[in-house]
Design a protein that fits this description.
By secondary structure, this protein is of the alpha+beta class. It has one domain. It is built from three helices and three strands, in the order αβββαα. It is elongated and about 40 Å long. It starts with a helix and ends with a helix.
């Protein structure tokens, strides 16, 4: 099963400004939630630019990888 069928990606910005214009003190949140049980599997608090970049990479991998392979790759990322 593809990862996009097993997980939902939720990105919450800590402010209204886009990442390039965001305050350096802002923290954005990224959650990877299991669709089956609604539990948060992975969670990151990052500065805006890093969160934007990571969310882009997560979306690409969600579309391409199988669920197990996806989780194995991203569970080791801090």
């Amino acid at each position: 099963m593809k990862a996009k069928a097993a997980y939902r990606l939720i990105v919450t910005r800590g402010g209204l400004a886009p990442a390039l214009l965001a305050d350096a003190e802002r923290v954005d949140h990224i959650e990877l939630v299991s669709i089956d049980d609604g539990e948060v599997e992975l969670f990151w608090d990052l500065p805006p630019h890093a969160a934007s970049k990571m969310a882009r990479q997560l979306r690409e991998d969600l579309a391409q990888l199988e669920a197990g392979e996806f989780f194995a790759r991203w569970s080791t990322v801090d």
